[in-house]
Hints:
Elements: H1 5-19, H2 27-52, H3 58-73, E1 96-99, H4 101-104, H5 108-111, H6 115-121, E2 125-128, E3 132-133, E4 147-151, H7 158-170, E5 174-179, E6 183-185, H8 189-195, H9 199-202, E7 207-208, H10 210-217, E8 232-235, E9 240-243, E10 250-252, H11 258-273, E11 278-281, H12 299-315, E12 320-323, H13 329-334, E13 343-345, H14 347-359, H15 363-372, E14 380-384, H16 397-402, H17 407-418, E15 430-432, E16 442-444, H18 447-451, H19 453-459, H20 462-481, E17 485-489, H21 522-528, H22 534-551, E18 559-563, E19 570-577, E20 580-587, E21 593-594, H23 604-608, E22 612-615, E23 620-623, E24 629-630, E25 635-639
Parallel strand pairs: 1-2, 1-17, 2-5, 5-11, 11-12, 12-13, 13-14, 14-17
Antiparallel strand pairs: 3-4, 6-10, 7-9, 8-9, 15-16, 18-19, 19-20, 20-25, 21-24, 22-23, 22-25
Helix pairs in contact: 1-2, 2-3, 2-12, 3-11, 14-15, 19-20, 20-22
Amino acid sequence: MVMNFAFEAQKTQQRLLAELDFSQLTSQQKAIFVKRLENGFAPLFEQLFPLYGQCFDLHYHLKVLLQSFIDFHKKKRPAQIKDKSEFWFESNQNVGIAVYVDLLADDLSSLIDKIPYFESLGINYVHLMPLYLAPEGNSDGGYAISDYRTVSPNLGTNKDLKDLASALHKKGIRMVLDFVFNHTSDEHRWAEAAKSGDQGFQGYYYFMGEQDAMEYNQTVREIFPQIRRGSFTYLPELDSHVWTTFNSFQWDLNYSNPAVFVAVVEEMLHLILNGCDVLRLDALAFVWKEKGTVCENLPKAHNLIKAFKACLDIAAPQVVFKSEAIVHPDEVNKYIGADECTLSYNPLMMALLWESLATRQTNLLYQSLERSFAIPEHTTWINYIRCHDDIGWLWDDAISDRLGIDGIGHRRFLNQFYTGQFEGSFAAGVPFQENPVNGDCRVCGTLASLAGVENAIAADDPLLLDHAISRIRVLNGINFAMPGIPLLYQGDDLGVLNNDDYLNDSTKAEDSRWVHRKKLTNADFALAEDNGAPQGKIAQLIREMIKIRKANPLFAAQEFELVSLGSEHLFAFRRQMDDKTLLVIANMSEHLVPLEHLPLGKSLSELIGQETAINLLNKELVDLPSLSLIQPLDILWLVNN
């Protein structure tokens, strides 16, 4: 017999309401909560039942969960942002930056002093990289969390974080925090209890014998093969293997246990109490495990994330999720939706922009975005060129195959190109986690070093430097003009180069991602103010693009169309809002490219709707019928006037 979810949800909800303690809420607070619960309980129940319907104590866990919502409802939060727009993320005013607190400033208190810099740059969305208590030494950049409720002492206190949230909100800047919910560090109190023999907390993780671990390892992929082979770590004190997808000190949580879900929701609510507006769901593809599968992107992972979202809608509906799914493009898109993640990183576009610069061809970029760029209404991409992590070449091999590109060989070429091992490469990247079996790896480096600035300076070659800065201009010109929120990574706004100081630190030397995690100094900011220096030119072009974007509502247009201009070297797209059109044209090569065969025989004039257009990037009037050549590594933002 098929279960009537609506009926069962309503029945369960009514029973739970009768059991909950509302004594600490005012009548108004209770009314608000009950209304949210009436709207949100059925979606929550529908997602939890496939996960935990077989658990005899599900009703108990639901009661604990809802009571935690009530307790959360009564607690005070920092001053909230004034902008209450439901779809704020669709505005052209949005420009983000991701920062490490102690690399941009010294601590949370001193980061408040950087708010004027954010304002001057045009930032209204600040993603703070992990800042909670973590193991000393190597903590995977803070992603091994020992206590979700305690700020790392070197960064300050919970009060400092709340003060920062209030200060950001007063300036109209949203605060983003990481929700690291796939794993904890092995120093978390749950892990410590598990190590001491507490069977209840051992059920929070995956402990198993060698045979079971070997069977799982047959089908799961290795994420950090240079650090540890397989996905398990042996614990002699327990004579058991524990699941560690990433590092041995990061223990994967066992979400087949409903107590884990409830406990992690409570940690999530604490993060929200500190004043965040967006939660980035870290490593969300890995959260559900089943033997005989790759243990990534499983259907029940989506049930789990939708259940977290249902909790969010009941407890804190003004907060949204951002997905971090660095997986196959088809899988990335499955996490995006009103009932799952409102925002999502766009790793496909990031990787293929770099691929296009290396090959000087845009076929793979076009074909991939044509298939994967569209997402549901009222959801948004987070577009980025670089981030705190590495670059992985995650396109769909079915598309590259159709284009006659061997996926394995092409990825090997890109790795060699961007790590400077390919003759003629402009890049100065560093390999990350090279697999000793198949030679696969990813690439690290700052925007400026990967684009060629570092090598051009070393060669003292003005032409190479001009090309490098032009590549940065093209990348940012596409990133700021695409639908979504453009996200800068700290230091890339200043033209910072790779820094190899990490090699002198034993806790970081084996993690080449630290090459682009530089402590920013006054000298870096001063160099970015020098218009004669490469860093100054980079900083200025980024500032100007942000200024133009924020001044033109057309950059909030939801209507988007890829445009083919008849050349494999060009990339173009059009955005439309009422009678206004934005046409972006980028040349990904160092050569003049002619405009020859436009789509369906249309001219540029027909694409824009008139004979002339303004190039927003230089304020020049362009006669479209006579525009026959696109300059090397150039980008145009053409609008009708």
